[in-house]
What we know:
The complex is a heterodimer. Chain A has helices spanning 10-22, 27-43, 50-75, 83-99, 104-128, 133-150, 162-170, 178-196, 198-208, 210-214, 220-245, 257-267, 279-298, 303-320, and strands at 157-158, 172-173, 176-177, 248-249. Chain A is mostly helical.
Amino acid sequence: MSSFLSQTDLKSSANNIISVLSKPGPHFTYILFFIVIGFFILFAPNFATLGTASAIGRITAVVTIMAVGMTFVIVCAEIDLSVGSHVSFAAMVAGILLYKDLPGWLTASLVLGLGAFVGAINGIIVTKLKIPSFLVTLGMLSVLRGLALSFTGSMPVPIVNRDYVDVLAGGSMLGVPAPIWWTLVTVVVGVYILHFSIFGRRALATGGNTTAAQFSGIATDEIRIAAFALCGVTAALAGLVLSARSAAGNPMLGQGLELDVIAAVIIGGTSLFGGRGFIVGSVIGAIFIGTLGFGLIVMGLSTNIQEVLKGVIIIGAVSLNRK
Amino acid sequence: MPIEISNKNPLLEMQKITKYFGENRVLDEIGFNLYSGEVHALLGENGAGKSTLMKILIGVYRADFGKILIDGIDTTDLSVSHRRARGIAMIFQELSLIPNLTVAENLLLGREPLHAGWLINFKSLRLQAQKTLDAYDFPIKAETPVEKLGFAQRQMVEIVKALSSGARILIMDEPTSSLTSSEEEKLFNIIRSLKMKGIGIIYISHRMAEIFKISDRISVICDGRLLPTQKTLDTNDIKISELMSQGDRQDSLAAQFKPKLSDQPFRSRLTVSNLRTSHKLKSGISLEIAKGEVLGVAGLVGSGRSTLAKALFGLIPDAKGIVKVDGNCVKLGSTTNAISAGFGFVPEDRREEGLIIHHSLASNISLPHLKKLQIGGGKLPIIFSKSADEMFNYMRKYLRIICRSGKQQASELSGGNQQKVVFAKWLAANAKILILDEPTSGVDVNAKEEMRMIIRNATASGASVLLISSEIEELSLTADRIVIMIDGQLGRSLPAGFSATEIRTSIQEDVHMIRKEPVL
Lengths: 323, 520
């Protein structure tokens, strides 16, 4: 009976990875994506340039990082509305720790750990007190925003640690800016955890049918808590990158980001009802939203109209992706 | 009291009702009628087709062939709401009242009397409801919130609600299942007064005693066919039990393969002592299963059999007692521990508990084995879906699962094949003890036979099985030993070789013994 557990050879492993990456979600996501890009190339002046690509990359990095974490939460059929203010909170904590002359690496580690902790609290309240995640994380949104504002009486904290700023945002390696590197690392880790690890399988099962998952020996509460913790870590990482980029901890830094992040995940083909999710899809969703925002700016539309259009497109995408 | 029915026109007539689910014929030319003022009892094992027939009657399903006449008028093509308008109403096992509203508000839900056409007139609402309740002599106050009522009273409200919207044909599905014996008596009085008013009642129940107390005629449905209807006065519970076993095919393949376990020395695999839960199993369960043995658990629905299964599998956190597998204690309340001790569980509700219906077959069966499916049998923490596919293909051949590939969604398979996938999940792990809760409910006859073969093959390779089933024939064919469970307690234990009829009689006797009711 052990014959089917044979060693997988290298070639078929590669095929496996390719098949996961090439099927990141419903095809309409791509169609929509290319229509929008095509539209901007035709109608927005000087859109098809390397400069545009790099600008979109930088804009998109933060949303992509957060979308990877959010994918795990949504795969478990939950939602995390607190990620936007979590970004501000993490940036403020980082700013204050650096102000107290803590080394950059220690600051970053502490903030990431705190991110996991805050996420886990969301998860524990959701699973143990059985309160819908929508309400719990809405409450957490307010708590984190309030904390971020109260640390300094809503004043930004300047960050003067050069290394911290370079490693997280300002510097580049092989010509690729640091935020893109951090995004790549997050995406690779996310692909591994969701598609190639035990945890990922269990998270998909938990969101697909919690009862059946429990009846298969999966501790679904722990899986959900871990998914929230992962989401918290990515929000904290996004906070680090944003604080480094603006060289300051600012309590308003992440405001409203949760909408972009959730939209990116859903547009990418992850089911809001859980049980189905694609990290690469979320990345494409994030790039899509970034492109949309950038293209609309290039075309000279006001940010207010952008908000309206973004909302309409998100509702449209979700309604096409209701499975 | 039984009324003369021979020379009247029936209130309801179902003619040659036939229904297919995919390829499976679940109802085969059923002819069933109901007269005004009559209680017609409908019996049958789980999965025999009772609820499908009733769903066709109330209009949830459409029959593939056949006609439904009410007062001689063809109503076959009517929708649920039009059926209701013609006077068909079902009293559900799970009552459909809204608990925090009052009786009056529930009774007139959607038909509330209004002030000036837009504001609810609560006074007239209460008076109108009270008048209806009084008209049926139900001693309930209209302003009481439903949540303060007992089950029997809620059932009364449910009945009044159906009647006040003009119902003349009432379907009662296991109406006494959550009633105490004094409440039961109240319900029977209500049924008798409804008969006087000319209401026809289809009465579905497993409980032989109450069927003989209240019904005028009895029909038995067996594997989708209706056996000839009997007048209650002309028959008795033994005859009906025999009738129910008539539908069996005695030349069962699995029966031929049944090994003589009694010839082998008894080597204990599972020992359970004093297993208790705070809810159903209050008095403690002790049992033992040998290696390669199939222990059948018979009993009524709601007797705590599923609770026993869940407690053993670690799904009930407050379960107490001692469970030993091959002499080693298993910590209760954790599925992880249960699985590593060798338990596998095929739950009662395949679609909700057994499978993730929108996931692939391979991913479904891989769930308990993810650690082993990692590269190199768990050396590297990486899983490729290929290894789950390989595992599935192996089990697919072994259990002859009919599907296109392991990537197919579980929802696309027939009931029998879905059930094989749930079996495969645990057989792939070489589970030592398989807990099977109604493993053949809702699958067709051939698939039932295959399930029995699967169980036999599993025990032949050393697995032990705890088989919970409401299908007495299945227990008689498959189990090496049968224990009877009534109200959370174990009754007698029967060795192999008992016929279905003998097992049924034993269950009835145990019910009387444990509940201390007089034998009829």
